Amino acid sequence: MSHYTPPLQDMQFVLSELADLHEIAALPGYGEATPDLARAVLEEAGVFASEVIAPLNHSGDVEGVRLEGGQPRMPAGWAQAYARFVEAGWPALSAPEAQGGQNLPGVLAAAVEEMWNSGSVAFGLLSLLSRGAVNVMRHAGSSELQQRYLPRMVSGEWTGTMVLTEPQAGSDLSAVRTRATRVADGSYRLHGTKIFITYGDHDLVPNVVHLVLARVEGAPAGTKGISLFAVPKVLVNDDGSLGERNDVRAVSIERKLGLHATPTCVMAFGDGAGAVGYLVGEENRGLEYMFIMMNSARFAVGLEGIGLAERAYQKARAYARERVQGVEQGGETGAKVAIIRHPDVRRMLLSMKSRIEAMRALASVMAASMDQAALNPDPEVRDAHQAFVELMMPIAKGWFTETGLDIASMGIQVHGGVGFIEETGAAQYLRDARITTIYEGTTGIQAMDLVGRKIGRDGGRAIRAVIVRMRQVQADLESHAQAELCAIGAQLNKGIGDLEAAVESLVKSWEGGPKPALAGSGPFLELLGIVAAGWQMGRAALAADRLLASDPGSDFLTNKILTCRFYADHVLSKSAGLRHAIVSGSGATLEFSDAAF
Questions:
Q1: pTM of the model
Q2: Which entry of 304, 440, 484, 526 is annotated as an active-site residue?
Q3: Count of domains for the chain
Q4: Domain limits at 128?
Q5: Nearest CA-CA partner of 387 in 465, 499, 470, 299
Q6: Which of the listed residues 138, 153, 168 is the one where a domain comes to its end?
Q7: Are 262 and 65 in contact (CB under 8 A)?
Q8: Is 63 a catalytic residue?
Q9: CATH assignment at residue 195
């Protein structure tokens, strides 16, 4: 199995030059987020990810999770690793100080989270879900619920889950049937079955706090009648000690294509008298509260796509450097060479590398905007950043994961036949990446959200504001004295033009009814992802060129510009075809009868 090397230099470059960490550090409460602190946090997280988490990835995949006497058992070594994770304080990295957290910016936490995912997505999922549950409890939970559960959830001593899906409902939450009955003491009793519950139960901690969607008796039909409940695996006494086991159990563990070390459970609530649950917020507002968790989870899943892609790339690169096969075309000696010398292998590796760096840049800029939207003292600035985050969230969830999946597949191609053999480890990244495009809303759902809510309903106002910012960078590139940057600017100009044409076509189409616009939503999500990431790569090229003036011998900065140029030529150049599919090809989708499929 290949070793994981955290990409610390690129992360630090992105934080300082693209995500403007110095501006984040000026926000209320983030004064300690200096470059030195960020560097120290990234270095320590990199050590933990590479030396503690990464070695468990393959063994956890092979051993998997097993169900013994109704209790899911984690693979060997996971309990010790998670105990060290909690002891080091990693779960509390970005939580508020008032609740036991370290109050570091989300933009820094996002870089750390990418490393957890590169180490092992199966491991990183546990803290991802707990963090989301904490956010919901912080925003909507009563003071009593917060006092009882948050300190130990923030620390990682207890974990949390998101419990939505039911066998008959799938992604249609309006069809949720789990019922909740009021009890005289103010609590509720829940009865129902939920499926696909990630880390629904495990033996790493003594308690799991489930956030469960259910219907109170007499509630309105559809999504308006859904409430949210905190349902602990073990009841908590008034003094904070653990009491009796709640009426909650893992019925089975799903057998999955990937993520074998993650206990994805079928959960039964209320086999007997009913699972004791506590209302979070108000009745019938559960879906509203759950979207707090779902939105943070969607961004976090995008980071999974980046982390998996980085690990697949590193493995493919290592193999290409050591695998000797064939002679170099045009070489003089006819000696056998490592396959990294072959042009098409180099193209594949650069395709992987450039797209990873582009996604990392866009993800960091998004995370910085989340920090600004939460804490900037100027309400207009907060609103502008929030609009940008909402527009780009489908890109983070949809495009990052689809790109990560493609990069993991390309990693197998670099290996050739041995990549198809499980023992080499390349196939695991593809299997693990496959689910990221599905959960927290499939790519199709993200694309419909993007075109429907973010483009059609607001008439394209939010995206036009972003295009103005893109044009500023494009102008700086095209007027630059360096030929490489001019070439990047020229391609970015074409990409932005294709994006503008697609936006205008979708806005006009939406006015006549949603179906034609939605038929082009998938290609549009890809187009916006490619161009938005190209915008950030353009910014990266400008920053690297500026820094080269004081560090002319930097291989990192020189290679950054070359990588940005490769992205412009090989990835951003795809915008024209996507534009055509959206503007001219979407209507054909609706012309076929059902019998044609």
A1: 0.95
A2: 440
A3: 3
A4: 8-153
A5: 465
A6: 153
A7: yes
A8: no
A9: 2.40.110.20
